[in-house]
Amino acid sequence: MFPDLSQVYDSTSATLTGGNRVERRLSDLAGCFQDEAAWKALVEESDPLLYAVTAVEPENHAGGLHYGLGVLYPGRVGEEYVMTKGHLHTWRDAAEVYIGLRGEGAMLLEDWESGESRLEPLRANSIVYVPGNTAHRTINVGSEPLVYIGVYPAQAGHDYAAIAQRNFRKIVVSRDGAPSLQDR
Ligand code: F6R
Ligand code: ZN
User: Fold this and answer.
1) Ligand 1 pocket member 102 (CB < 6 A)
2) Alpha-carbon distance 56 to 67, whole Å?
3) CB-hemisphere CA count at 13 Å for 122?
């Protein structure tokens, strides 16, 4: 039998028919932001919703694909732009394709072996290929919601523990109103 083969998304409302929606608030990102005092103050004040991902998982075998529609809201914690937790795939070889739909964002990519980092733009009409063995974090550097789709192997898995142990080496901060990649 065929699984659900077709879904409909809307980039303005950031909705996708089908799939499971997971929400992340600021308190879910303990230890991620550089400015811990700013993080704590904002958590205590309102603990805002930072992002939500609606994931569709039609098949789980080795050749299958999963995909998710993400919406990452704009804002800053201290000088650092709002971002996702970030992860490596548990199956380290698993790559991913990100397709930008709306808003102004960037992908922070870190080769986990060498530590080499890159910042790639993610916005409407852009596609970012995330190679295997690459930690990836999505960042909203604009003033409206960033909406994107990520497509990845069904067996990729999400390893957040590696990031909790060793955060990304670089941070993305606002300098004179523009995003700037800095050492942590
Ligand atoms: C899946 C993927 C995205 C992210 C989403 C939320 O492999 O990379 O769908 O899961 O951008 O980010 P995290 O998972 O880091 O909280
Ligand atoms: Zn991923």
Assistant:
1) no
2) 5
3) 32
In this predicted model, what pLDDT tens digit does every residue of 67-109 receive, in sequence order?
999 999 999 999 999 999 999 999 999 999 999 999 999 999 9
* CA proximity to 162, closest of 8, 48, 9, 31: 31
Give the residue, out of 25, 84, 93, with the most ligand 1 atoms within 8 A of its beta carbon, to mutate for a pocket test: 84
Residue 87 Cα: closest atom of ligand 1: 15
Kindly give the residue spans of alpha helices, DSSP state H, lying in 4-145.
36-45
Q: Which is it for strands 170-175 and 178-183: parallel, antiparallel or unpaired?
A: antiparallel
Residues in the chain: 184
Q: CB within 8 A of 166, min separation 6: which ones?
A: none
pTM: 0.98
Q: Does domain 19-183 have CATH number 3.40.30.10?
A: no
- C-alpha 3/C-alpha 54 separation (Å) is 17
> In this structure, which ligand is nearest to the CA of 56?
1
What tokens does 141 get? 């550097």
Residue linked to tokens 């999400």: 158
Distance 159 CA to ligand 2 centre (A): 9
Mapped onto helix, strand or coil, the DSSP state of residue 144 is coil
> What does the alpha-carbon distance between residue 128 and residue 83 come to, in Å, rounded to a whole number?
16
